[in-house]
Task: inverse folding
């Protein structure tokens, strides 16, 4: 039996209250009728519970603007989630860059209808009403996943920057966090060391930093990821961060010579936001091996399931990559 999604749990809790108050009312009626009604209510609640437990988690995939090739990556990301058989994915596209205010007024996503909001977006600031609704959604128990450049936008949106923790910002814009050679966290103040950047596309290893976390349970401690951008020098409030994975940014490819954070999550109110930096594709870039990487696809699926349910049931595939060799699906 699959773990219950957040929305399914809330629905079940509401049903339980209805059943409870129904029993209280029935207690004043004929005892035989009360017993029949109780049995019916219990049977219906059990059936609904089983249905909701086995239902797919709902995901809202948002894009529409990005300096990366979102018109190619959005279908790829949806396909990755779809193939897991665990998610019901809805795509929502913002108005294009430079759109009129009236176009933005027509974009009103209902975040509360979804278990996970998945951002493949790097563009203009959202309207205030949408930002407020997103904050309320996360604060009230919603979840979100920021994929690659989705940690780039919205400079000055304080709540978003708190949710994400580290973002694509200059050196003065916040704290810098990395791990040293012994795996200990290092936190540098604004203005010290470099700001956000990346070296050349290359193959690099991802290192698990939370082996007991459900997303990483059963994964090798180190595995190879192919031909991707390795972000370094991210900046932000960097508060309440739970670091799940890092990658060594080698100077040989223009990197920082530090173990940079790649995947982490932050609690915000009753909700949580997970940032997932791998997965780069420029417009016109032919090589899409990063998206065909078995490790990348597996972690993206498992991260989304964990956000939706708090647990992970998706297995680690037999062809998951090892430390020296990437595992890449054919084109």
Result:
């Amino acid at each position: 039996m699959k773990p219950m999604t957040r929305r399914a749990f809330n629905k079940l809790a509401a049903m339980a209250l209805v059943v409870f108050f129904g029993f209280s009312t029935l207690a004043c009626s004929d005892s035989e009728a009360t017993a029949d009604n109780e049995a019916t209510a219990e049977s219906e609640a059990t059936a609904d519970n089983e249905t909701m437990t086995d239902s797919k988690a709902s995901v809202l995939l948002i894009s529409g603007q990005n300096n990366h090739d979102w018109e190619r990556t959005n279908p790829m990301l949806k396909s990755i989630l779809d193939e897991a058989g665990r998610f019901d994915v809805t795509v929502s596209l913002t108005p294009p860059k430079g759109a009129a205010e009236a176009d933005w007024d027509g974009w009103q996503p209902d975040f509360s209808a979804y278990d996970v909001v998945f951002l493949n977006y790097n563009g203009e600031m959202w309207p205030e009403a949408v930002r407020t609704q997103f904050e309320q959604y996360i604060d009230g128990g919603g979840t979100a996943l920021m994929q690659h450049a989705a940690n780039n936008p919205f400079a000055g949106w304080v709540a978003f920057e708190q949710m994400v923790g580290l973002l694509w910002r200059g050196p003065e814009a916040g704290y810098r966090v990395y791990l040293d050679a012994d795996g200990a966290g290092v936190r540098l103040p604004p203005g010290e060391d470099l700001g956000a950047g990346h070296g050349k596309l290359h193959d690099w290893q991802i290192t698990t930093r939370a082996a007991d976390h459900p997303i990483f349970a059963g994964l090798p401690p180190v595995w190879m990821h192919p031909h991707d951008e390795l972000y370094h020098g991210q900046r932000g409030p960097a508060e309440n961060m739970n670091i799940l994975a890092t990658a060594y940014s080698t100077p040989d490819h223009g990197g920082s010579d530090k173990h940079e954070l790649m995947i982490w999550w932050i609690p915000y109110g009753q909700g949580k936001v997970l940032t997932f930096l791998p997965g780069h594709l420029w417009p016109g870039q032919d090589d899409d091996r990063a998206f065909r990487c078995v490790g990348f696809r597996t972690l993206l699926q498992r991260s989304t399931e964990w956000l939706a349910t708090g647990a992970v049931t998706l297995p680690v595939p037999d062809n998951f990559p090892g430390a020296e060799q990437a595992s890449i699906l054919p084109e």
In short: The longest helix spans residues 31-53. The CA atoms of residues 197 and 268 lie 26 Å apart. Residues 6-53 form one domain.
